[in-house]
Amino acid sequence: MRQYLLHNLLALCLLLILSGPACSAPGGPGAENAAPGASSGSTGSYNELKRFTRAYDLARGGYVREVSVEELMNGAIKGMLEGLDPHSTFLNKEDFKEMQEATSGEFFGIGIEISTENNQLIVVAPIEDTPADKAGLKAGDLILSVDGHPTQDMTTQEAVSKIRGPKGSPVELLILHKDSKSPQNVKIVRDAIPLISVKTRFLDDDGYLWVRLTRFNDRTTQELGEALRAQAKKSSIKGIVLDLRNNPGGLFKQSVTVSDIFLKSGGIVSMRGRGGQILETHDAKNSSSDITCPLVVLVNQGTASASEIVAGALQDHNRAVIIGEKTFGKGSVQKIEPLGDGTAVKLTIARYYTPNGRSIQAEGIVPDLEIAFETPREGAEKPLRFFGPREKDLSRHLEGGTGNSEGTEKKDKPVLLEAETKTLLEKDNQLRMALQMVRSLPKISEVRAQ
Fold first, then answer.
1. Helices then strands, each counted (H, E), the chain
2. Do 220 and 187 belong together in one domain?
3. Residue 447 pLDDT
4. Is 330 marked active-site?
5. Is 104 assigned a catalytic role?
6. Does residue 359 sit in the same domain as residue 242?
7. Engineered SS bond to 91: which of 96, 177, 287, 351, CB 3.0-4.6 Å?
């Protein structure tokens, strides 16, 4: 009797949900395509409901083991959402808790953002200084199996659950690197994922600062402001290289507030939902603390989601020169809706658009200057460059004609850079180009103004 009542209650609830739009008032949602006097929407919903309850009855009564109503309904919701796109999904209690921890608290794993593409699990980007990063995982790599379990038909959330685990425990991934013909097994030991999302260091003695954003968590804007103020106390900041490479994104609001730090006015991003309806727009606010120095942004295939919003806004306002490789193209908006029992639904509700109306979804941000990353040649510690003497280095060289050189010889600037910074520049051709560009921007602006 109890099962019969539950079955009928379930059927009634589903009928009300499915038939809701067809019962709209004239002119409202669902009325647009309905012929006068027709009730095809209600009929269609009822037929679909009958099909669903038939499948439910078969699974409930005939499956090889006993299954609960909760298990079946969770599976139904999960299948419904994950059939829409790779980012919509059902979050059980454990998944929902992990997602909250990933942006606000400590969690354990290997430190990668993943997605699905053509039913294949793909690495969007490894988070810097995490086990995945140290193991050599790169944006665009395919994950073929997790601990021997094939990922071919595995959802993104299922893969996340299998890859995460207790600190110190190992996980084995079968990886096909994007530049390789055969896969390899990579054993990675899980660890705490660092929540610090901002790194800064001066690239030279002239005040050009490298700002590396590894992700967008709930403290990124605060960390960025603190880091910029701390570095400004050491030296005047003449220009910034904002490095968003392999930044898989994170919290949307943080992308807006980070963009605002570099913009005095104008749009940052808009969200457009079903039918192109504008759901939200976000604009920059003028502040005395805004950063106005020359700016270059580095991007690559691992630049995704929130980091693409920042790059797109700065590019559309001609605030920065974008250098590197085309970004990932994850420009859809997911909303997390708790269901009241510890579970939640993550549903794609809109797409992101840049201030000039460009869609990021599946398009990405194309750099102003496309430069592929060059892996340093094996055995080559430094890039090829001119090491011979210049005219000024020759003994008894003729002075430049600016007057008596006696007592005017310039002394070398004090070496302030760490050896790690020099090594970083020597091994990173994109970063070297960004530094050259940010130094040149004031002169380029002068030329363009003439």
1. 11, 19
2. no
3. 65
4. yes
5. no
6. yes
7. 96
